[in-house]
Design goal:
19% of the residues lie in helices and 30% in strands. The protein has 594 residues and is of the alpha+beta class. It has three domains: 21-204, Jelly Rolls; 210-282, Sandwich (Immunoglobulin-like); 304-593, TIM Barrel (Alpha-Beta Barrel), CATH 3.20.20.80. The strands form nine sheets. The protein has an eight-stranded parallel barrel with strand order 23-24-25-26-27-30-31-32, surrounded by four helices. A hairpin with a 4-residue loop joins strand 15 (235-240) and strand 16. Helix 3 crosses helix 4, helix 5 runs parallel beside helix 6 and helix 8 (517-531) runs parallel beside helix 9 (576-593). It is globular and about 75 Å long. The mean pLDDT is 96. The site of (2S,3S,4S,5R)-3,4,5-trihydroxy-6-oxo-oxane-2-carboxylic acid (GCB) has 9 residues, from loops. One of its GO terms (biological process) is carbohydrate metabolic process.
């Protein structure tokens, strides 16, 4: 083999080096490198990108990212993929949804596009923001490695100030969706492992001082704003014109917090008041629409703006038959419209951070939200690298959405085994959630102790709301045990039934019994009747609004789908259980009004 250029410095080494990816697994694009983007005018980089799947990671081994555009006849060495030529795919998208042969593909996907920019003025900076890429994303510009992000559902930013030259540049993203034991989630999930850049990609230009973070909230009865600025600014000004309020915040090491003298009308599902907030610092300017409300736990009550509330909820995945995990404004609005038809005031956005538009729309429409990170099932709790990844995903989610009044609960895990390692891991996550945001409740979806038939989980002492996933009438056949659990348990804090339900196949399901629509409806009826008698149950989010795609469900009724939806995967066909839950929520809502 000849050695002709420095791309693959040594072609044989590229074949033999099994540490080829180590330099690129830096995880240095994380919560601390985010910039605040509310109110910024960005340049969309969505659209067609060159694309290639790469099962063997040949691209990292051979350094495809370092290839420059050339005509085939001008190249001096053979190549296995030309990132500047070949087929294109739309961004955002999930590759599974684009070609049948990519349906089960798990590995690296290479995205490349040209990016032409004007000269950057003196004292200006550029940042690239990727809304989400599943799961590991490595960023290269003009052949240079600029950073790596782990976590499939949170945004990340990379500074391009020094990396882009005037004129044409080449941006390459290597996105890898391989499931591994140490990740968050780990290898086994009950939702589909999509891959790709499936949320928006945007280029922002800022002054030297850039607002990295803005957190505005009601705390201790006062409106409080915290700002983080990267750059020479020594004060930040926060204004809420609708309240005639403003404050100059002195910055120390780029950070500052101050109170505003303001009396906002409170945000609630019935009165979703929002206020424009602007923040200026060193020539940079960002803005947001913020609602103000309180949420707390008092004994076994969940208390919104001083009044106990029952969460009439539904769980929802970000999944679509045609686009996978790639969503749209219309898709999100349809989800909320269906939730409204059900009579919900609450949604559980399972099991990972959904698109940020969801919480913005919930703010406008007046829904309460449970947001979650994918600490799901048997995460590698003893592994510090896994904790680091989970902590970063949680921090990115909280920083992205902590100005959203709709978000009332940060959920740090789902159905994890009650081990010492898990308890230590989850306590640290609860601490992170509270340190980043002391104004919301922390929850986790726990399991009931089936042996002792009661709600019992050591994590409960460290969270505010105990989520309980229980499937009496489905996975647990003896329905009567649910009543026994109810009697045996005396939790000292609110319980939300974060999941319950049953599969019902609307196309091929039998007339009766498991997988029939009739059986699904019966489970809902029985669940509602039993849960109604449990005083400490302060909400429910049954599983789930729509049927969703998943690899591990392959019986004749499932056919690759979890069929517990109240509505089928077409997002149109309602199953009978939908009306049963809607009738229950109508009753509950009427009781609250009286
Ligand atoms: C659960 C999980 C959820 C599953 C669901 C089911 O307990 O939390 O992710 O999809 O059950 O349908 O089994």
């Amino acid at each position: 083999m000849l050695e002709r250029s420095d791309i693959a410095e040594n072609a044989l080494q590229a074949l033999h080096d099994e540490d080829y990816d180590r330099p690129f697994n830096t995880q240095d694009l994380n919560a601390d490198t985010l910039i605040f983007t509310g109110g910024r005018q960005g340049r969309s980089l969505d659209g067609d990108w060159n694309f290639c799947v790469d099962l063997l990671d040949t691209g990292l081994r051979q350094k495809w990212f370092a290839m420059t555009p050339a005509r085939p006849e001008d190249r001096i060495e053979p190549w296995d993929y030309d990132p500047h030529a070949g087929e294109t795919v739309p961004v955002p998208s999930c590759w599974q949804m684009l070609k049948e042969k990519w349906y089960f593909f798990e590995g690296s996907g290479w995205y490349t596009r040209a990016l032409t920019v004007a000269p950057l003025g003196a004292g200006r900076r550029r940042f690239l923001r990727i809304g989400a890429a599943q799961y590991d994303c490595k960023v290269f510009v003009n052949g240079r490695f600029l950073g790596n992000h782990y976590g499939g559902s949170t945004p990340f930013c990379v500074e391009l100030t020094d990396a882009l030259a005037e004129g044409e540049n080449h941006l390459t993203l290597c996105v890898n969706n391989a499931r591994t034991r140490d990740r968050v989630p780990m290898r086994n999930t009950d939702w589909f492992n999509y891959g790709g850049i499936y949320r928006e990609v945007t280029l922002y230009e800022t002054p030297t001082s850039v607002v990295r973070d803005l957190f505005v909230r009601l705390e201790g009865g006062q409106v409080v704003a915290s700002v983080t600025v990267d750059g020479p600014a020594d004060t930040a000004r926060v204004e809420i014109p609708g309240l005639g309020a403003s404050v100059d915040i002195p910055l120390e090491d780029g950070r500052g917090t101050a109170r505003l003298d303001a009396r906002p009308d409170l945000w609630s599902p019935a009165t979703p008041h929002l206020y424009d907030v602007t923040c200026t610092a060193g020539g940079d300017r960002v803005s947001d629409r913020v609602g103000f409300r309180t949420i707390e736990r008092r004994g076994t009550e969940i208390v919104l703006n001083g009044r106990p509330i029952f969460l009439r909820g539904i769980s929802v995945h970000e999944d679509d038959a045609a686009t996978g995990k790639c969503t749209s404004e219309a898709d999100i609005r349809r989800r909320f419209a269906h939730a409204r038809d059900l009579g919900c005031n609450f949604l559980r956005l399972a099991h990972y951070p959904h698109h940020e538009r969801a919480a913005e729309i919930a703010d406008e429409m007046g829904f309460l939200l449970w947001e979650e990170i994918p600490v799901y099932w048997a995460i590698d709790f003893a592994n510090p690298a896994t904790l680091r990844d989970a902590t970063n995903q949680l921090t990115e989610l909280v920083r992205r959405d902590r100005n959203r009044a709709s978000v009332v609960i940060w959920s740090i895990g789902n159905e994890n085994p009650d081990t010492d390692a898990r308890l230590s891991f989850m306590r640290k996550l609860a601490e992170t959630a509270r340190a980043e945001d002391p104004t919301r409740l922390v929850a986790a979806a726990c399991l009931v102790n089936h042996r002792k038939l009661r709600i019992e989980d050591r994590l409960a002492a460290h969270i505010d709301v105990i989520g309980i996933n229980e499937y009496y009438g489905w996975y647990d056949e003896d329905f009567d045990e649910l009543g026994v659990i109810g009697e045996n348990s005396a939790p000292d804090r609110p319980v939300v039934i974060s999941e319950t339900g049953a599969d019902g196949d609307h196309e091929a399901g039998p007339e009766s019994g498991l997988f029939s629509l009739a059986y699904q409806a019966e489970v809902y009826e029985k669940q509602i009747a039993t849960l109604r008698g449990l005083d400490y149950v302060k909400g429910m989010s049954p599983w789930i609004l729509y049927d969703f795609r998943v690899e591990r469900r392959q019986n004749v009724f499932q056919r690759g789908w979890n069929r517990k939806g109240l509505i089928a995967a077409d997002k149109t066909t309602r199953k009978p259980a939908f009306d049963i839950l809607a009738a229950h929520y109508a009753e509950r809502a009427a009781e609250e009004d009286t």
